[in-house]
Amino acid sequence: MTSTKPKLIIISGPTAAGKTDVALELAEPLGGEIISADAMQVYKHMDIGTAKPAPEQLARVPHHLIDVVAPDEPFSAAIFRTMADAVIQGLHEKGRLSFVVGGTGLYIKALIRGLFPAPEQDETIRKRLRDEAKTSGSDVLYARLQQVDPAAAGKLHPNDTYRIIRALEVHELTAQPISQLQASHGFQDRRYRILWIGLTLDRDILYDRIDQRVDLMLASGLLEEVKQLLDQGYSSNLKSMRSIGYRHMADHLEQGVAWDETVRLLKRDTRRFAKRQLTWLRAYPEIQWMEPGDREGMAKQIDLFLTQGAAQPTNVKRGF
Questions:
Q1: Is residue 318 part of a domain?
Q2: Is 291 helix (H, G, I), strand (E, B) or coil?
Q3: pLDDT per residue over 271-311, tens digit each?
Q4: Which domain covers residue 149, as residue numbers?
């Protein structure tokens, strides 16, 4: 076993940015293998709505952490980290390069920086805070965070509702600022050398790609996939089934939401999800932001990383 730290190439970005195609084209000539960092692709029987790689894509490059649990089994960033670590170490020992590919920022953060000892999510608190954000605005929650944890608030954008809610939730559960817990952890668990490529493209282009992806998912049988899951006994209240796409189809089937409205909400919520993904990723200055079509530029960055251990910063904007 080599004593050097394994090298990881991370490909991340918002949904519909083209992460799968980019990763395949970059990994295949290098004999690399792909580790999915997607919180939904871990679930079996959930293929269309999670945009899993097609069989022919899976045949081109070995993939890991896809279809590892049933929709009603628990899965978390901590579980992902444990499983991904094992895969990466195994590949490293074989001299193979690991590509970590996905848009679940928390999973990537857990893998490369570790997890600090925070309480599990409390859905009652989170729902109350989400409802308050909808009715009163995220600026009200942000102002509250400034009072209880100014250090955390100073690192967040006032519209970063997800992180604001998490910080307030942790404070309610522990009576401690999340910034204090994070500082005590330090996130010094740097076990890998990484090149992190973030895919970015114009907002209008991304939104058009999202709309096209939704239309393709529907044409490919997303509604039928959700019907089958429900028929198999998987409740629409499961965490996996409340994800984007699945909850929309379930609400159409069980709550009678009109089809046109279902499609509208699905496209709207997917766009909002993409914005949240970008907000999360913008917090990491080490990301090299590049256009999805710039495969030559990415290949050059990878070559520098593999031969010299460092990549050169790019001038591409960090998404919209």
A1: no
A2: coil
A3: 999 999 998 898 889 999 999 999 999 999 999 999 986 55
A4: 123-184
How far apart CA 193 and CA 8 sit, in angstroms, is 6
Helix (H, G, I), strand (E, B) or coil at 37: coil
52 with 197, same domain: the answer is: yes
Whether residue 141 contacts residue 164, with contact meaning beta carbons closer than 8 Å, is answered with yes
CATH of the domain at 258: 1.10.287.890
Residues 65 and 193 in one domain: yes
Phi and psi dihedrals of 35, rounded to 5?
-110, 115
Q: Pull the structure tokens for residue 315.
A: 């001038």
How many residues does this entry show for the chain?
A: 320
Interval 175-227: pLDDT, tens: 888 888 767 655 455 789 999 999 999 999 999 999 999 999 999 999 999 99
State the CATH number of the domain containing residue 173.
1.10.20.140
CA angle 245, 64, 116 (to 5 degrees): 80
CA 248 from centroid of its chain's CA atoms: 20
**Token pair for 252:** 């159409």
Residue 313 lies in a domain: no
Number of domains in the chain: 3
